[in-house]
Amino acid sequence: MYWQKLGCNFAQVDAVFDECLKEAKSLLSSDGLISYIENARFLGKMGRGPEPLLVYLEEAPGAASVLGEEALLELREFAHYMSTHTNFKSMVPFLQTSGAVARLLHSPDLFKQYIEIVRDMMDRTSGSVHGHHTTFPSPGLSDLLKQAPRILSMVPLDGLKNWIEYGIRYYNDHPDRQVEYFSLESADSMAVLQRERHGTLFIDNERKLDMYMRGLWRDHDYLVPYSLAFDELVKPMPYFDDQGIRIPDVYDDLNGIPGIDRYRATLAHMAAHRRWSSKMVVDNWSPIQRVGVETFEDCRVDWLAMQRYPGLRKIFMALHPIPDESRLDVDSKEASTIRIRLTLLSRAILDPDFEPANEMIRDFVSRFHAIMDKGEGSSPEMASLALLFIARTPKDFSPNVLFENTEVEYRDDNRHLWIYIENSDEDEMFEHLNRKQQEEEELKGLPPRHYDEWDYTNSSYRPDWVSVYEVLHPGGDAGMVDRLLEKHGALAKRMKRILDMIKPQDKVRIRYQEEGSELDLDVAIRSLIDFKGGSSPDPRINMSHRTDGRNIAVTLLVDLSESLNEKVPGSGQTILELSQEAVSLLAWAVDHLGDPFAISGFQSNTRHDVRFSHFKGFNEAWDDRVKGRLAAMQASYSTRMGAAMRHAGHYLKAQQADKKLLLILTDGEPADIDSKDERLLIEDAHQAVNELDRDGIFTYCITLDAKADEYVGDIFGRQYTVIDKIERLPEKLPELFISLTK
Amino acid sequence: MTTDKEQYKIKQEPFYQAQSDEVELYEAAYNARLPVMVKGPTGCGKSRFVEYMAWKLGKPLITVACNEDMTASDLVGRYLLDANGTRWLDGPLTTAARIGAICYLDEVVEARQDTTVVIHPLTDHRRTLPLDKKGELIEAHNDFQLVISYNPGYQNLMKDLKQSTKQRFTGFEFDYPDEETESSILAKETGIEIELAAKLVRIGQAARALKGHGLDEGISTRLLVYAATLIKGGVAPRSACRMALVRPITDDADIRDTLDHAIDAAFG
Fold first, then answer.
1. Could you give the CA distance from residue B240 to residue B231 in angstroms, rounded to a whole number?
2. In terms of domains, do B146 and B199 share one?
3. In this structure, what DSSP letter does residue A446 have?
4. A313 contact residues in B (CB cutoff 8 A)
C-alpha cells in the first residue's frame, strides 16, 4: 500500500523500501507515517534522481523521532529549497547528516535554527551573475554539511554559526579556499573552531598548570597540548617523554569534576610516575603482561599521590570508571575480559569502599596493600605482582577485548615505563644524526612567530594571521656610520648639551644644604637643640631637590619598504640614506643617555612573510657590529605595520623599565600587496597601538609622508609628528626623542 | 641614671627547635663576644633564634627594628629639649652597650648604609661607642654583643650591607626547616596534631616552590604557625589556610587558584 503511495519506479529504492518502512513504523505514529511517505514521494518526483529519496527514507524517521514529526516536512522543504536554488547536489549530504545533527541538537527549535544558518550560508555563498540569478552552487556547502555533525559535537550551535560567518567573510570570493575551509582542512578553519570550543582550554590555564607542577610536585617540563578534535579513529592519550608533557588542549567537565581539575589529575598522575616509577625491560613480556604491569604501576603511583595529597582521591575516584563485574562471566572464547578485570582491580585498590565479588581480585588487592604498607614499593615489585596476577588469570586470548568502562582517562599511555633492548636498530641511530643536521639548518633564522590581525569589519581578530620572521640584519661598513656622525658633528655637539640637561628624571631630596628650597625640620630642630645645649649648631638646615634615575626603554622601529629608495626632491639623497643618518644620530644620542635601546626594521611581502630585521638589541653596545648593520640597511617590499609593532612590543614588554617607548619611523601608510582594503591595515595598526598601550608601552610615530594627516591620526591618535622637510630628519629625530622623554 | 636591666630579660623559654648545631655555634661566638649576623628568608625563625639564645645565655635583649628613616642618633641617642634646656637620652645601642645586653638590629639592610656605620667601633677589638655630641666614649660592658639580621631574598642593588660592615660579623644562614622538623615545630608551637601540621607544611612547600615564578617569597613558617593557631582556635582548616597562608602573600589570581587547590589537595 505504502509502495503505491510512494509512486516511484527506482529499482534501488525498491530494494531497501521494506527495511526502511519497518524502521519507520517502529519510530513514527500512523499520521507520521503518512506524512513520511508523502514527503518522500515529493522528493522522488523532483527529478533529481533516486539519491535524495533514498537518503530521506533512511534518515528521516531517525531525525523525526528526536525532533518530532514536523521535522519530516521541514527536511523535505529545505531539501526542495536547495534544489530550486542551484544547490541540489548538497541535498544528499544535508539529508544524510540530518539524523546525526538532530541527535546532537536534540531540540526542534535548535534544529530550525540550524536550517536557517545553513540557508543563510547557502544564499550568501551561491554565485550570482548580474546580481539577480543564483547560477553557481555554493562551493563549500556540501563540505559544510558533511562536517556538521563533527563540528556540532565540538561546539554549540552559536559556535557553528560564528565559524561559518568567518568562512563566508574571508573565502567567499575564493572557491578553492572556501572548500578547504569548510571541509576543516585549512589551519585557520581549525583555529577559528578551536576558539569556539566549550570546556576548559589549555591555553587559558597554562600558567596555572605550570604552577601546579612546580608548586605541588616540584617538577617542571614543557606542557604541550595536542588536539582531540581532529583525531577520531585513534584517540590520543596524554604522555610524556624527553620533549615534554603532552596533554589535551581542552577538557570538558566530567562527572562533576571541572576541566581544570581534570588537567590537574592528569598532571598529578604523570608527576607521580616521574617521581616514583622506574623503567623496565619489557622485551620478554607479552602484551597482556604489559597491560597488567602498567595497571599495577599506575595504581601504585596513584596510591602514593593520594597519600601525599589526600584531596586527589575525590578527583581520581570521580574519574575512575567502575566496570560491570558481571561482564567477567563472558565466555573467554567470545571476548577477552582482561581489561575489565584489571580495571576492577585498579578501582578496588584505590577505592576502599569498592568491594569486588571476585575472590582473586580481592586477594591481589590485599597483596598490593601488603607491599605498600611497607613503604613506597617499587616498579619491579609491581611487575612481579602483575605477572603473577596475569598467570593466575584464566587464559583469554580472544581478539575481541571488552573495553566498556575500562578507560581511566587521567592516566597516560605509560610509554616511559618501557625499555626495549632489541628494537634499538642501527637505522634509528642514523636517524638522530639526520635530525641533528636538520636542527642546525633551522637555527639560522628564528622560527616564525604568528600574530593575530585585527579585522575592523567585524571587530575581531583573525587568529595567527601574520607570520613574522626575525633575522639578524647582515653587517656592512661600520665606518660609514661614523662618517655620517662626523658630518653632523655640529648638531651632535648641540644635542650633547641638551642631553646632559635631561639625563636625570626622578626627584631626590638633598639634605644638609645651607641654602635650599625648603626648611628641613628635622635638621633644624637638631640644630636648635645643639644651640640651646651650648654646642655649635649645624647651619645646614635647608634642603633642596634634584632629579635622578632615568628609567626608560626605547625601541626604534624603522619602516624598510620599497618607497624608501625614492630620492628626496632637491637633495640627491634617498629617504633611506636620510633615515640611516637619523637613526645613527638617535642611536648615538640614546647611547649617550644610557637608556636601554633597540633598533629594528620591518618590511612585508604578504601576510606570510613579514620580515623583522634586528639591528641592535637592548643589551648590545653601540659598537661597530651594530653600526655595520645600520650601514647595510636596505629597503624593499611593503609596510605591514601592525604585526611588526606587535613583535617589537613583545620584546619591549619584557624590558624592566618604568616607561617604555616604541618609536616608529615610516614614510607611508600601512599597506601590503595581499590586502585590497586599504583601511584594514590602518585599523590593524591602530589596534596594535591600543594593545601596546594596554601593556604600558607608549607608541609614537614619526612619519615622512607629507600627506600622512589623512590617516596617521587614525592610527596613533595624537602621538605622531609629520616631518615634511625630509632633509631635516637627521636633526629632527633625536630632538623629538629628547622632547618626548624630557 | 640607671636602666633596669631586668626589663630586657626574656622571662619564659621561647620555643626553638634547632635545625643543626647553630645553638652551640652561637654560644661559642658569644663566649668570644663576636658579632653575629643571621640571614634567611622572612619568617623562618631568625628573631626567634636570637630571643632563644638570649634566654639560654640569661642576657637582656634589646631589639631594634630598622627602617629607612632611621638615623644614627636613633641608635646612639640624642639631646632632647625640655623646660630647663636640654637633656641627653641614650639610644638603644648605647643602652645595650652600657648594661651589657645583646643588641639585635632586625632587618638591618632597611637602614641606610651610612647609619649602619655607627656600629663599626663596637664590632671590632675596640668595643667602644663614641658619643661625639655628648663628648663621651662608652666602653662596652663585658656582656654586650651585637647581632644583626637580614633577608637576602629581596635584596636589591640599593639595599645591601657595605663590605666593611659585612666583614665585621660571623654569620648564620637560615632557611625554612625540612618537612619533618617544620611539622614538629608547628605541632609544638601551637599544639595541633602532627598529621595536620604535616599537611600545612606541604602547602607551605608548594608555595615555596613557586618562588621566582610569581611569588617573591614562599609561605613562611610564621604564616604556617598563624594558620595552625587559627585551626586550633576552631576555624575550619581550609578557611584558616586560605586566610593565613594564601591571601596575605599574593594578589595574582593564578597563584591564588593554584594554592587554593593545593589546600584542597592536602586536606582531601
1. 6
2. no
3. P
4. 268
Cell of A224: 604541550
**CA-based nearest distance B85→chain A, Å:** 6
| DSSP secondary structure, A248-279, as one string | ESEE--BTTB-HHHHHHHHHHHHHHHHHH---
**Chain pair A-B, CB pairs under 8 angstroms:** 70
* B230 in the same domain as B142: no
The pLDDT tens digits for A476-530 are 888 888 888 888 888 778 777 776 665 555 567 778 887 778 888 888 888 888 8
Range of the domain at A70: 2-196
Whether A206 has its CB under 8 Å from any CB of chain B: the answer is: no
Residues A305 and A237 in one domain: yes
- Shared domain for B91 and B206, answered yes or no, is no
Contact state of B86 with A535 under an 8 Å Cβ cutoff: no
pLDDT confidence band for B101 (50 / 70 / 90):
very high
Indicate the residue of A216, A218, A525 with minimum beta-carbon distance to B262: A216
Domain check: are A166 and A259 in the same one?
no
Amino acid at residue number B244: A
Cβ contact A529–B78 (<8 Å):
yes
- Residue in A200, A216, A218 to test binding to B, most B beta-carbons within 10 Å: A216
Domain that holds residue B36: 6-173
Residues 6+ apart with CB under 8 A from A476: A628, A629, A630, A631, A632
pLDDT single digits (tens) A669-711:
888 888 778 888 889 999 999 999 888 888 888 888 877 778 8
- Let me know if residue B1 belongs to a domain: no
Q: Do A246 and A126 belong together in one domain?
A: no
Dihedral angle computed from the Cα positions of residues B41, B42, B46 and B48, in that order, rounded to the nearest 10 degrees: -150
Q: How far is A302 from chain B (nearest CA, A)?
A: 13
Distance from CA of B171 to the nearest CA of A (A): 30
Model confidence over A190-222: pLDDT tens digits?
888 877 777 787 877 888 888 888 888 888 888
Query: Per residue in A216-272, pLDDT tens?
Result: 888 888 888 877 665 556 778 888 888 888 888 888 888 888 888 899 999 999 999
| Residue A67 shares a structural domain with residue A150 | yes
pLDDT tens figures, B159-213 = 678 888 889 999 999 989 999 999 999 999 999 999 999 999 999 998 988 887 7
Long-range contacts of A689-696 (CB under 8 A, 24+ apart): A689/A645, A689/A715, A689/A716, A689/A717, A689/A719, A691/A646, A691/A649, A692/A645, A692/A646, A692/A649, A692/A652, A692/A662, A695/A649, A695/A653, A696/A653, A696/A660
Q: Taking each helix axis as running N to C, give the angle between helix A157-171 and helix A187-196, from 0 to 180 degrees, rounded to the nearest 10.
A: 150
Strand order in the sheet with A506-513: A506-513, A542-548, A518-519
Nearest chain A Cα to B80, which residue?
A529
Report the SS3 class of residue A447: coil
pTM of the predicted model as reported, rounded to 2 decimal places: 0.60
Per-residue pLDDT reduced to its tens digit, A23-71: 888 888 888 888 888 888 888 888 778 888 888 888 888 888 888 888 8
Residues of A in contact with B255 (CB under 8 A): 211
CATH number for the domain spanning A725: value is 3.40.50.410
Which residues numbered 257-276 in A keep a CB inside 8 Å of some CB on B? 260-261, 264
CATH number at residue B129: 3.40.50.300
Give the residue from A276, A280, A403, A282 showing the smallest Cα distance to A338. Answer: A403
Residue A228 included in any domain: yes
Do B191 and B105 have their domain in common? no
How big is the CA angle at A375 (ends A374 and A379), to the nearest 5 degrees?
A: 110
Q: Which chain A residues contact residue B209 at CB under 8 A?
A: 214-216, 218
Task: Report yes or no: A474 at the B interface, CB cutoff 8 Å.
Answer: no
The minimum CA-CA distance between B214 and chain A, rounded to whole Å, is 9
